[in-house]
Amino acid sequence: LEYYARAYEAARQSESDLAQVAMLSNVASIHSEALDAYDQAEAYYARATAVQQRAGEADALLPYNRGSNYRRMGRVDDALAAFAAAERAAADSGQEVLLQRARAERLALEALQGPGTGDADVARTQLLEIAQRQRALEDATGAAGTLLRLSHLALRRGDPADALVQAQHASELLPKTEGLAEHREALAAQLAALTALERWREALEASEALRALEGAHARGVELGALASMQAKLEDTRSGEELQRLQEERRIEALRMAHAARLRNGALVGVGALILLVAAFVWYQRGVTARLRRLSTIDGLTGLLNRRAASRLLDLEGPGPARG
């Protein structure tokens, strides 16, 4: 349901009418077949039908599924109208499988609503032909559904033995991977026929099998819910871990940026110190040269003063002796 809901929102945002109809119909089918939430299913089917009509599309699957939900709700007139619409749409589009399924549902409902057994006998013949046609189409689930309608009609006309045979054949035809609703309906039909035949032990076994099936489904739903909760917890933990790692990365980036600023500042300081030292040395040399010049040059004449001249003569040594 959660995934279909997400897909529906994506389809709605992309304005894809066909995808919206498909997702809403899937959500409705889960409510109807797996959760027995028929009113909620009808609300989704109504929304899907509105989108389909707005788009001007005519699809057989939606009215067929909606008719099945109406049948489970006991809204026979609405179910008949929906199955008739599914028949027309399937005939127009050449969807033979859906055509046979919708026709079988409509005939069975009309026979159950009929006043006498004559209508039921005619419907039985037609439904047997449809079941044979569905086997030829390799529609095992559809054939099983038609046999279940035959089982209900047999009970109505007072033939529980035939009802049991049809229900057992339906159960054998159903694939193991088929949904809960079909298997449950097959077991319920067998239970009703066995009860009418007063075969109490077998009826008890059928009742226990039905209860086990529903219990397994309930456990599956619970396990699914637990798995979903676990997944959400894991997602939360993963999100928290990701957030923690991102925060650590952010702090590390800040630390490295601070270290880089300190390093750059130190380099600038060293450079400035070198410049200062160089300037001081250059200045010191200038001062020394000036002092040396002041101590050796006479300020008035610009010549060497007496001290500098005497030091220079001493360095040159004594001159030649006079006679």
Overall geometry comes to rod-shaped
Residues in helices, as a percent range: over 70%
Give the class from helix and strand content and strand pairing: mainly alpha
Largest sheet: none
Task: Encode the helix/strand succession as letters.
Answer: HHHHHHHHHHHH
Tally the helices: 12
Instruction: Report the uncertain regions.
Output: none
- Compute the separation of the termini in Å: 136 Å
| SS elements, strand count | 0
**Strand fraction:** under 5%
- Rg is 49 Å
In short:
By secondary structure, the chain is mainly alpha-helical.
What does this structure look like?
The protein is mainly alpha-helical and 323 residues long. Helices cover 85% and strands 0% of the residues. It has helices spanning 2-13, 17-34, 38-55, 61-73, 76-93, 96-113, 117-136, 140-156, 160-173, 180-196, 200-296, 306-316. Helix 10 runs antiparallel to helix 11. The chain is rod-shaped, with a radius of gyration of 49 Å. It starts with a helix and ends in a 7-residue tail after the last helix. The mean pLDDT is 79.
Q: What brief labels describe this structure?
A:
mainly alpha, 12 helices, 0% strand, single chain, 85% helix, rod-shaped, 323 residues
Outline the secondary-structure elements.
Layout: H1 2-13, H2 17-34, H3 38-55, H4 61-73, H5 76-93, H6 96-113, H7 117-136, H8 140-156, H9 160-173, H10 180-196, H11 200-296, H12 306-316
